[in-house]
Amino acid sequence: MKVAVIPARGGSKRIPRKNIREFCGMPMIAHSILSAQKSMIFDKIIVSTDDEEIADVVRAYGVEVPFLRPRELSDDFTGTVPVISHAVKWIEDNVQKVTAACCIYATAPFITSEDLIKGLQELIVHKSDYAFSVTHYPFPIQRAIKVNSQGRTEMFFPEHYNTRSQDLEEALHDAGQFYWGTSQAWLNQRPIFSSSSVPVILPRTRVQDIDTQEDWDRAEQLFYLLNRG
Predict the structure, then answer these.
(1) What are 104's strand-pairing partners?
(2) Cβ contacts of residue 87 below 8 Å, gap of 6+?
């Protein structure tokens, strides 16, 4: 059984109610739901939430909320892996055995069904613990700078001061869209960022963190640009 688990906590502070706030014509979380449904690779799609209002919104899109997430997994400090582990265990205890589960973030409006399908294929082909979305940094991280305690700038890696950008190794970062994992990887709460994982590389034009109002505005502009015509 392949399942999608969409974690959607009700306590967002920087953008209140952002999981169900309208984004380009529909609740933010609906974009993730529709992409999961369109992929047609899931036997079950559920939302893990602690919030009754979120539960009501997602049920209108035909998604199950089979339990309300426990309080101890709904604070500001609980990571993704324990939340998905809890959901997978609940499904295995109450429905049937899970072979693979995909965590899909509720705030991932640029996710596509094609990427979800590719992620599952990568998980199976490489026999990995996880396959998850990543993208390239737009600038070489080896030439990053910081502000020191005196308010002056200095390089994180001063040894690369004279290194040409094209000679530096490219770096990737988590795209924050989806994480495919085997049942055992989730249940044993194995780390996602490890040599047991494989990347699904996305173009930077379809990746945008949404943590602030500025992020939100930029994401809406990008969404309309990508979907015009």
Answers:
(1) 178
(2) 3, 5, 7, 46, 48, 101
Q: Spell out where the chain has E strands.
A: 2-7, 22-23, 26-27, 44-48, 100-104, 130-136, 145-147, 153-155, 172-182, 197-201
Q: Which domains does the chain have, with CATH numbers?
A: 2-135+173-227 (3.90.550.10)
- Reported as a pLDDT band with limits 50, 70 and 90, residue 14 is confident
For residue 9 the two structure tokens come to: 């906590």
What does each C-alpha distance from 91 to 51, 96, 136, 186, 207 come to in angstroms? 19, 6, 35, 12, 30
pTM of the shown model: 0.94
Chain position carrying tokens 């205890």: 93
Please state, rounded to an integer, the average pLDDT across all residues of the chain.
96
pLDDT digits (tens, 9 = 90+) for 172-221: 999 999 999 999 999 999 999 999 999 999 999 999 999 999 999 999 99
- What number of CA atoms fall less than 13 Å from residue 47's CA on the CB side? 31
Instruction: Give helix 28-39 / helix 52-59 axis angle, nearest 10°.
Output: 40
Report whether pLDDT(229) > 70.
no
Residues 6+ apart with CB under 8 A from 151: none
Collect contacts of 79-86 with beta carbons under 8 A, ≥24 apart: 80/7, 80/179, 80/192, 81/186, 81/189, 81/190, 81/191, 81/192, 82/189, 83/5, 83/7, 83/48, 84/5, 84/7, 84/48, 84/179, 84/181, 84/186, 85/186, 85/187, 85/189, 86/48
95: closest CA among 6, 188, 2? 2
